[in-house]
Description:
Strand content: 15-25%
Largest sheet: 8 strands, antiparallel
Distance between the termini: 29 Å
Number of strands: 19
Radius of gyration: 22 Å
Number of helices: 15
CATH class of the largest domain: Alpha Beta
CATH superfamily of the largest domain: FAD-linked oxidases, C-terminal domain
Amino acid sequence: xxxxxxxxELENLAGKENVLIGKVDLVAYxxxxxxxxxxxxxxxxxxxxxxxxxxxxxxxxRRNRIAIYPRGAGTNLSxxxxxxxxxxxxxxxxxxxxxxxxxxxxxxxxxxxxxxAALNAxxxxxxxxxxxxxxxxxxxxMGGSAAENSGGLRGLKYGVTKNYIMGMEVVxxxxxxxxxxxxxxxxxxxxxxxxxxxxxxxxLGIITELTxxxxxxxxxxxxxxxxxxxxxxxxxxxxxxxxxxxxxATLEIMDRxxxxxxxxxxxxxxxxxxxxxxxxxxxxxxxxxxxxxxxxTMQVVRDNNGDLKAAETDQERDQLWTARRNALPALAxxxxxxxxxxxxxxRSRITDMLVACETIGKKYNLTLGTxxxxxDGNLHPTIxxxxxxxDEIHRVHEAVDEIFETALQFGGTLSxxxxxxxxxxxxxxxxxxxxxxxxxxTIKKALDPDSILNPGKMVPLRxx
Length: 464
């Protein structure tokens, strides 16, 4: 527990109204959206309102060796914001200003607490979009998504967060405030600091402002649903669409378990007898190009034994994407614990990974549904279980181990968008090797020698 004098100093720095020490408040910041993770109440929650305030808080924390846990909306899925060593949670909900929208340079400058959906609403009148759209787009913040390098449904065509962060302001562990990058399209000055801090999960510095790239909103789009009788056909269709040189804006998959869960949850009219669905959207600035890509896509679906349904109205389109965004809450409603993983493989192995997930679920006698961004090989095997059943939880852990082992065997990676946090640290050596782990530790030590920034996350401690 922090000394009362430290709390008083924080109140003097941030204002008493921005310092939370009540039990209910502390419990609210003791966990994030990750299931089956330890929970820990912080000593105090501080809601900074400026970069200068963040800098002052970091100086105070460093002098007193107090851990700091930067936090956005807490929607991350890797245990990344749990305050393992108590200390200070810095919640950026009050730093939520859109500082500037610059249509001439296709950029926006935002504070970290800006919600992604709010940014898109603000730039829409200019005919622009900010493409990254994680499943929690209505609540996820720009700072949190940058720290996690979030992806989303449009990742196949438009990329992930790191492709849209052009510059930032960061407060380092020593209290220095630094800026790098900016509005220029080309910038190769010095190290690529933006890409170093994007995806660093608050372990190297605290993001206090972001310069984001915007793009013109596509004028035309076509949305389709492919219905398949086997997982293999659905997976082969994904590979076939890419092989046809069509890059959809979104190419999402749902397996039978997910389809039935979503239909029971949302009553959208999904075909519950299907083994798999593909939800596909092609878009662009030229109507004839979009039409040609849609026709090529539909032909691939037919060639792989799929039935087609095209969305003819905005209502039908919204229903299809509502179905996909409801995948996680629908599955989560089936039991008291949902373990959502993030295994990503090369597109050429998507069929193998889909079948492997189904096989692993059966092997460990678990309720497992798979959905995800099939077009970029990013799948979300989701296990529904009872946290009060030790035997079942043990089988869940064994299944997760095998899912990641399989993904790496297929030339994949541990995370396509959810990050490492504390959930996946034990697997890092399997992908990076000892030299990779040592490099991570070297960078962490150089920028945060006292390990006060989000300790216990992303960077495994050296084994003695």
